Every structure is written in C-alpha cells, then in structure tokens.
Amino acid sequence: MREDPEEGMLSWDETVFRDEHVFEIDHIPETFNHRESQLRSLKYALRPAVRGSRPLNTMVRGPPGTGKTTAVQKLFGELGTQSGVRTVRMNCQVDSTRYAVFSRVFEHIFEYEPPSSGISFKKLFGQITDRLVEDDEVLVVALDDVNYLFYENEASDTLYSLLRAHEAHSGARIGVIIISSDLSLDVIDELDGRVQSVFRPEEVFFPRYDVNEIVDILRGRTKRGFHENVIGDPELDRVAELTADSGDLRVGIDLLRRAGLHAEMRASRTVDEEDVEAAYDKSKYVHLSRCLRGLSDPERELVRVVAEFDGERAGAVYEAFNEETGLGYTRYSELVNKLDQLGVIEARYTEIEGRGRTRAISLAYDADAVLDRL
User: Fold this and answer.
1) Considering the entire predicted model, what is its pTM?
2) Is 325 helix (H, G, I), strand (E, B) or coil?
3) Which among 89, 98, 212, 272 could disulfide-bond with 158, CB atoms 3.0 to 4.6 Å apart, if both were Cys?
4) What is the pLDDT of residue 354?
5) What is the 3-state secondary structure (H, E, C) of 249-268?
6) The pLDDT of residue 1
7) Matching fold, domains 36-205 and 296-372
8) Ranges of each domain in the chain
9) Distances in Å between the alpha carbon of 316 and those of 29, 52, 210, 331, 362?
C-alpha cells in the first residue's frame, strides 16, 4: 500500500486486502493442510477411474466446515486433467430430486440444459449413459449435502439409478461420492433395502479442526488475502478462538473478511480486536444464512410463522401457516421435520396437563437474525 500522510489511515482508493477472493467461502486454497489422511482415502477410492474402471463408492461425513467439499473439489480438479474421466459435483440443497440431479449431470455432459418438460427420466437417463459409453468415459458423481435428498425422500431412487446404471445400460461406469454434514442421519439405515444391497461405500470421516489447526489454516489465508502486517497474532488468535467455539472453519474465513471490511470502514490499515468482535455478530450466522438460501417459498413462510409464534404449540403454528399458504397438515408436518433436521427450528414434544403430549416449535436462532436473512 502507498504511504499516507496520516499514518495508519487508508486513503479512499486503498485497501487492506491483497486478494479478497481468498476469504470467499467457496474458494479452493492452493494448499490444503490437516486433511492428508482423508485425501489419501479419497484418492484410493477414485484411483480405479483413471484406469477406466468404476471407482469405489464413497461416503464422506463430518460436521459443517471441516473441509469435505474442498477435498472433493481438489481431487475432482486433478481428475479433470485425466482423459476418459468426467466428474460432476452438485449441491443437493439446490438439486434435491432425482430428476434435478440427472438434469445437472446431463448439463455437464452435453454442455446445455435438458428441456424443462416433455422428456421422461428414462429418456434423460438413457441419453446420459449412451454418451458415456460412446465416449468411453467413467463418470464420478459427488452428491454434496446429500442429506437434502433424504429430507425430500429422493435419496434411495437417486442412488439406485446411479448404482444400477451398469446393469440397465451395459458399459456404463458410474461411481458415487455422497457428502453429508448431518451426523444424526444414518445414511445406510435410511436407504431402501434395494439400495442397501448394492451400496457398500468406503467411509471417510472429517473431524472438526482443533485450535492449532485452525490458526495454521487461517494464518495461511491471511498471508495470501491481506497485505503484510494488516492483522497481528492476538487478533488472529481471537478469530481462531471464535471459530473453534463454532466448530465451523467457514465462520473463521468469513470473519477475517468481515473484520477487514470493518477496518476499512474505519479507514484503518490494520485489523483490531474491535473489528473482529463487530464482524462476529454476522459471521457466526454463516451456517444459518446458507440453510435459508436454499429454502423453498413454503419453507421460508413456515420459518416466518415460527418466528412470530416462537415456542407456541404446533397446532397454533399450523393454523397460521395454513392461513398464509393454504397447505395441508401433511405437508406442514413434512416441512417442520425438514427444518428441524436442518437445525433452523427446534420441534420438541412436551407434556401439557390436561392435553397430553404435544409438540412445541421454536427457532434455533435469534428471531431477528433469522428474519434479517430470509
């Protein structure tokens, strides 16, 4: 940065950032530390694809913000340089049905979207497998946030079609990686028996980073993302402490960016602890923001109703939700269960004198924070 007459102050066209993109949540770092054993396991499972064989199916599990998606993306980047291998990673929060998943695969293979209507799944599936056989390619599909397929009761049908492709279309070679951040979800038990019989995945677990690992990872980001001496060790340690408390590395990455922006707002050349504390009020809701972005309109409306009737009995919440949307109790109950599994709301059964057992519904976050992000 250029010298400024007022020492320690930024001029209007200066910045504390060397490369702000380093602090974006979906940034793939050049160096990926503290996940060496997980990368080795994934490479072992994927290696057959390079030799023209179906790779081993793999289940990647771990809490949010532990490097699961980054690991798969890095290896897919390496596989993408190999001839005869095609990789497709999709976000099941967005593509949460079997048809949506295969539409995304079709788009990657043919480089244009399939018709939104008028084409059956069987025909869509057939065109995909025919092209794979014609081009003599192995396909590796990563279902990121696969838990969303379970929430929509689409997981078994989707996996069955992928896993049985070689039987329905001779010569088709497809391997599957499923990635889940929902540790309460027993993936195998929740699948249909017809899928359990063919899905015997390698398991790769990503534990939470410890504080020392967090400091090391965030220090690497600051060196690439900030100019020299923008953030000191005490401030970085505080960011690491808050990140460890949340258990989600994405909180720390987002916190560094917001702290830098807060410092710039003060026209400061350095990030102080006050910048970190101020930024944390927003960064701590990274997981919430991500969940809310993927909700459908009825789901978002239910969240609004729950915010208004926070802690009320399910019946009162349903009546208000039904009045707003016209949706029936069955669909309402499905949405409650999904939002509960996502950790956006909490639905607990309680005993009420004279009424028996009933369910109370409340937000899992501060109501204002939720409403601000809807």
Assistant:
1) 0.89
2) helix
3) 98
4) 57
5) HHHHHHHHHHHHHHHHHCCE
6) 42
7) no
8) 36-205, 209-292, 296-372
9) 48, 58, 43, 16, 12
Looking at residue 168, its pLDDT comes to 82
296-372: CATH number: 1.10.10.10
Locate 265 and state its tokens: 């707002």
Q: At what angle do helices 36-50 and 68-79 cross, to 10 degrees?
A: 30
Residue 124 token pair: 């869509």
Cα dihedral 314, 317, 322, 323 in deg (nearest 10): 150
Q: How far is it, in rounded angstroms, from Cα 211 to Cα 226?
A: 21
pLDDT digits (tens, 9 = 90+) for 77-122: 999 889 999 999 999 999 999 999 999 999 999 999 998 777 999 9
* Confidence at residue 69, expressed as pLDDT on a 0 to 100 scale: 97
Say yes or no: domain 209-292 is CATH 1.10.8.60.
yes
Binding site listing for ATP: 66-70, 209, 221
The amino acid present at 42, given as its one-letter code, is L
Hunting for tokens 């953030």 — which residue is that? Answer: 231
Q: State residue 352's pLDDT score.
A: 58
- Binding site feature residues: 66-70, 209, 221
**Do you know the residue count of the chain?**
374
- Residue 5 has a pLDDT of 40
CA-nearest of 309, 7, 214, 20 to 318 is 309
User: Is the Cβ–Cβ distance between 150 and 195 less than 8 Å?
Assistant: no
CA distance 180 to 62: 7
- The mean predicted confidence, pLDDT, of the chain is 92
Residue 327, Cβ density class (10 Å: 0-12 exposed, 13-18 middle, ≥19 buried): middle
Fold of 36-205: Rossmann fold (3.40.50)
Kindly give the parts of the chain with pLDDT less than 70: 1-8, 351-357
CA-based torsion, 76, 246, 151, 301: positive or negative: negative
